[in-house]
Design brief:
The complex is a heterodimer of chains A (about 425) and B (about 240). Chain A has helices at about 1-20, 365-370, 385-390, 395-405; strands at about 35, 45-50, 60-65, 65-70, 75-80, 85-90, 100-105, 105-110, 115-120, 125-130, 140, 150-155, 165, 170-175, 180-185, 190-195, 205, 210-215, 220-225, 230-235, 255, 260, 265-270, 280-285, 295, 300-305, 310-315, 320-325, 335, 340-345, 350-355, 360-365, 415, 420-425, 430-434. Chain A is mainly beta and about 425 residues long. Chain B is mainly beta and about 240 residues long. Chain B has one helix and 18 strands. Chain B has a nine-stranded antiparallel sheet, with no helix packed on it. Chain B has a nine-stranded antiparallel sheet with strand order 13-12-11-10-18-17-16-15-14, with no helix packed on it. In chain B, a hairpin with a 2-residue loop joins strand 7 and strand 8. The radius of gyration of chain B is 24 Å and the shape is elongated. The chains are: A mainly beta (about 425), B mainly beta (about 240).
Chain lengths: ~425, ~240
């Protein structure tokens, strides 16, 4: 009887651990980006695809046989993981460009309508909802060198909303109003609000009673999870002229007392979680690190934008272990299952790579990527510069993003459950591959 | 030989039945709008009463699970419209027609604001028709007449919402906004979801959403006018209707 109880207890602990590691952006509260079990080392087939009304930049999460994600069509979706059939959808007043978190039968997610929702995980019914100070994109005059340089322009590459993380009975998330919020997960009551100097669209990580998150004000913050008081702040790079090399769009991963975060200043930083002191930085020579790094087995895995690199560095020293030249920008965060890394690319390709070498194992092209409307891609699947970046008005970052999205770009971070890889695409489909 | 003939004869009714259901399923394809080919997913099925029902998805255009209106399915042909989606003023609803050209293939047209584009569809799987959102009954605390006021553009607007429950059915509502003129807004949906009441006019993109505060007896929320969201507090006026 005693032995049976121990087995039962272990089973419960194990089961809970599995659910926790798949029900939040990047797997769990620390955002390590690792998933239990193995993912496919070879591509066999599309298990199912689920079409929505607009692009998907949200990442899917899993709880109790259901996949949850947000759509830019304004809906939060619950889809049966087995057959891809819709269980429910719940409309919000704007694109749901954040990844939901699921805990204790409740789905938590924010929307571009400036509200944060708690929904019943089984039915989608509203449990509570609170309004933030309102959403907005990062913006600046002369942004990325666009004209007219005296006009404030919203950043078309600010595609994500902050995804929530749960810890100690609270749900934490950032907002376009520049604040980080702590809200009672059960009631929706505001516990505290921490003001930064600009948009917070990175997703906070939670570890050891501390909330870690970066802001577009060029600072990365460690905040006491209970009091909302600042523990330390770390200063990233600044770019007062064209505002291109500034801001923490990347979400952090916290592993073994070190915070790993990308930055638009083109660095990947390793920061001591207790002191806020820099351990090391890996510079990418002007290329943004937008995605959240995956951290496993002493390795940090991440992708870059313009240089289109897939990189693996040592978690302790920051020394390069592996480098692979990709074909297009990487905004999505890599996800690890077993010895395989899955990462989405903005040319509409999902790549599976070997964890140790970074070698490409297989790749899958989204439907829109295969169509290649307007020849946005070259025949070898790189971005087709002359057609992609054509604009007399130097509105390249705006028109080019619209063109980029037309090829089913993958901003979504892959979720791996029971050997199936789930991810969203700007072609409006949520894909399940095995 | 004899057995083969019997088997073939047995198959005839099955084939005939299959033909009758040949439009049932999930159809995917493209609408060839010049310079902007649009992907479309159409689900068609019969409900329990044998009546055809369907919904449509148009990725990139914000259309997900919109019910097919005026759906007609005849021998090899389908026709429907999508109500007020993409409907220009003084124009007919956006409409689709298609006919079977081969097993699992349809071609046809989409018409919107006087424009016509070719439609090509292929059957890909079984239907996943999405049910339209339905009104719910409302709590006893909410039934009755509520009044309030908000200001927009320097002018006051008086709001009246009258909620009525019906035995064994969903609630209905009358939603009137009086500014420079009286707007009796047609209500499509009344839902009580969690602690929230939502009264919505889908065609007009106008809604009231609020939460009942027992202590004050007020309905506190916002009126969403599509282009703006304005705070609105409603207070009970007169008796309850149920």
């Amino acid at each position: 009887m005693k032995r049976a109880r121990v087995v039962l207890a272990l089973a419960v602990v194990f089961a809970t651990g599995v659910v926790d590691a798949q029900s939040t952006f990047r797997g769990d509260a620390a955002h390590a980006g690792t998933y239990p079990g193995e993912g496919p080392r070879q591509f066999h087939r599309v298990k199912w695809k689920f079409p929505t009304g607009d692009r998907i930049v949200s990442s899917p999460v899993y709880a109790n046989g259901t996949i949850y994600f947000g759509g830019d069509d304004g809906n939060v979706y619950a889809v049966d993981a087995a057959d891809g059939r819709q269980r429910w959808k719940r409309s919000t007043g704007g694109p749901v460009a954040a990844t939901p978190a699921v805990a204790d039968g409740v789905v938590y997610v924010g929307s571009y309508d400036g509200k944060f929702y708690a929904l019943d995980a089984r039915t989608g019914a509203l449990r509570w909802r609170i309004a933030t100070g309102g959403e907005r994109r990062f913006e600046a005059k002369g942004l990325h060198g666009m004209q007219p340089k005296n006009q404030t322009i919203a950043d078309p590459f600010d595609v994500y909303l902050s995804s929530p993380v749960l810890g100690g009975g609270s749900v934490y998330f950032g907002s376009g109003d520049g604040s980080v919020y702590a809200v009672d997960a059960a009631t929706g009551e505001l516990k505290w609000r921490f003001a930064t100097g600009d948009v917070v669209h990175a997703s906070p990580a939670y570890a050891d009673g501390t909330v870690f998150v970066g802001s577009w004000d060029s600072y990365f913050y460690a905040i006491d999870a209970v009091s909302g008081k600042e523990k330390w702040r770390f200063h990233g790079g600044e770019d007062p002229v064209i505002h291109n090399q500034v801001g923490f769009q990347s979400s952090p991963a916290v592993v073994d007392g070190i915070v790993y975060t990308g930055c638009r200043d083109s660095n990947l930083y390793a920061i001591d979680a207790v002191t806020g002191k820099e351990r090391w930085r890996y510079n990418n020579k002007g290329s943004w690190v937008v995605g959240s790094p995956a951290v496993t087995q002493g390795k940090v895995i991440f992708g870059t934008s313009d240089s289109s690199l897939y990189l693996v560095v040592d978690a302790v020293t920051g020394k390069e272990i592996a480098r692979q030249q990709g074909k297009a920008y990487v905004f999505a965060s890599p996800s690890v299952a077993g010895n395989t890394v899955y990462v989405g690319v903005l040319n509409g390709t999902l790549e599976a790579r070997d964890l140790d070498t970074g070698n490409l194992l297989w790749e899958y092209y989204t439907e829109a990527s295969m169509r290649n409307d307007g020849w946005v891609l070259t025949a070898d699947r790189r971005f087709n510069g002359p057609l992609l970046f054509w604009s007399n008005w130097r509105e390249v970052p705006i028109v080019a993003t619209v063109r980029q999205f037309s090829v089913g770009s993958i901003f979504s971070s892959p979720l791996i459950v029971d050997g199936v890889v789930y991810f969203g695409s700007t072609d409006g489909n949520l894909y399940a591959l095995e | 030989m004899h057995q083969t003939i019997i088997a073939l004869l047995l198959c005839v009714p099955m084939l005939a039945h299959g033909a009758g259901n040949s439009q049932e399923g999930r159809w995917e394809g493209q609408v060839a709008i010049p310079g902007n080919e649009v992907h479309v997913v159409i689900d068609l099925a019969r409900d329990k009463a044998g009546i055809w029902t369907g919904s449509i998805i148009m990725p990139g255009l914000g259309v997900k699970g919109v019910p097919l209106a005026n759906l007609a399915v005849n021998e090899g042909d389908i026709a429907f419209d999508i109500g007020d989606r993409f409907r220009s003023p003084d124009q007919a609803p956006t409409a689709f027609t298609a006919h079977l050209t081969a097993p699992g293939a349809m071609t046809g047209e989409m018409r919107q604001s006087g424009n016509v584009a070719k439609l090509q569809l292929t059957k890909t799987s079984s239907a996943q028709v999405e049910s339209a959102p339905r009104s719910t009954a409302v709590g006893r605390d909410l039934a009755g007449r509520w009044i309030g006021e908000f200001e927009l553009g320097g002018y006051p607007r008086h709001v009246t919402i009258a909620l009525e429950n019906h035995a064994g059915a969903a609630a209905t509502a009358r939603f009137v906004i009086v500014g420079k003129q009286t707007n009796d807004i047609p209500v499509d949906l009344v839902t009580e979801d969690g602690n929230f009441l939502r009264v919505e006019s889908l065609a007009n993109h106008i809604a009231f959403e609020g939460r009942y505060d027992k202590a004050s007896g007020e309905l506190r929320g916002v009126v969403d006018l599509g282009f703006a969201e304005v705070p609105l507090v409603l207070r009970r006026s007169g008796g309850r209707t149920s």
